[in-house]
Amino acid sequence: MQDQAERVERGRTRDLLTGAQVLSGQLGKTIQRLRKAYNLSLSELAEQSGVAKSIISQIERNETNPTLATIWRLSQALDVSIERVLATGDEEPFIEKSSRADTPILVSEDGKVRLAIIGWIKTVEWLQWYEVSADPGGVLDSDPHQRGSVESLSVSEGVFEVDVAGVVQRARAGETLRYRCDRPHAVRCVSEGPARAIMVVIMKAAVME
């Protein structure tokens, strides 16, 4: 009975260690993906989190099992919940479908610009994207996003004008405007007919020169 209990205990310990290794591997991938998405170097993340650069490097390479305190500091620096950082990935094929009825719509104050939220809720903390439709003269005024954020507007129909702190540019169908959105900015429909575009917002992207 004692031998059997020891075997069960050894098996349980082995399972726990295997689980810890899997979590560590997923954790490293998650930390590295978020760091690169925010365009942070190892040194910059180390400075913001208070975790040594060498430790972060070891975590990303799956060479160490960090403490909960270390994971918490990294999650704070990356502006994500600790649950998201610890979440393990699924290796199974993934496909998800959303209907038009399930897609939330944001409307500008003048009622002439509509943003269909087609982005994935799991990426909203660092990546957002919208389908924009606007009537002539419609204006979408926006407050500044997080410092270093960049917005991209790809026009598929009509003409849009983007005003960023007094600097104005226009884009027609087939053209794309990319601009800092960490300051007041506005998107206007300046065509004679309706206009459409895809808007992508990268939160905390590299600060543009």
Structure write-up:
- It is a single chain.
- A hairpin with a 2-residue loop joins strand 6 (159-164) and strand 7 (167-172).
- The longest helix has 36 residues, at 2-37.
- A 6-stranded antiparallel sheet has the order 1-2-3-10-5-8, with no helix packed on it. It has a 4-stranded antiparallel sheet with strand order 4-9-6-7, with no helix packed on it.
- The chain has 2 domains: 2-86, 434 Repressor (Amino-terminal Domain) (Orthogonal Bundle), CATH 1.10.260.40; 100-202, Sandwich (Jelly Rolls), CATH 2.60.120.10.
- The chain is built from 5 helices and 10 strands.
- By secondary structure, it is α+β, with helices and mostly antiparallel strands.
- Helix 1 packs across helix 3 and helix 2 crosses helix 4.
- GO terms for molecular function: DNA binding; DNA-binding transcription factor activity.
- Pfam families: Cupin_2 (PF07883), HTH_3 (PF01381).
Keywords:
209 residues, 32% helix, transcription regulation, elongated, 28% strand, alpha+beta, 6-stranded antiparallel beta sheet, Jelly Rolls, 10 strands, 4-stranded antiparallel beta sheet, 434 Repressor (Amino-terminal Domain), 2 domains
Task: Give a short summary of the structure.
By secondary structure, the protein is of the alpha+beta class. The chain has helices spanning 2-37, 42-49, 53-60, 68-77, 82-86, and strands spanning 105-107, 113-117, 127-134, 139-142, 150-157, 159-164, 167-172, 176-180, 185-189, 195-202.
Q: What's the total count of β strands? A: 10
**Rg (C-alpha, Å):** 23 Å
Q: Label the structural class.
A: alpha+beta
Helicity level, as a percent range?
25-40%
* Main sheet overview: 6 strands, antiparallel
> What's the overall average pLDDT, rounded?
80
Distance between the termini: 70 Å
Could you name the CATH class of the largest domain?
A: Mainly Beta
- If you consult CATH, what is the topology of the largest domain? Jelly Rolls
Keywords: DNA-binding, Transcription, Transcription regulation
Domain HTH cro/C1-type: 31-85
Pfam family, one: Cupin_2
Protein name: Helix-turn-helix domain-containing protein
